[in-house]
Amino acid sequence: MKAKIIITPKQAVLDPQGKVVENTLIHMGYQGVTGVHVGKYVEIDLAPGTDREAAKAALNEAAHKFLSNPVIEDYRLEIE
Length: 80
Description:
Layout: E1 2-9, H1 16-27, E2 40-45, H2 52-67, E3 73-79
Antiparallel strand pairs: 1-2, 1-3
């Protein structure tokens, strides 16, 4: 199994990296760009036989306490 955690700035938080990417795309001629958010992607390999629900609970805790800053970031956890 593989866990994927996508961490992005909250909508209300200023994202200067996202703004730079957005402006660059527009200046390069890409049409229709109305917003860009730059975040983090963490991929974690899980050992064979790992209990999916236990892993999900543990990784949600890790994402909330360590991998993201819940004051300014949101995260999404996927386990495949």
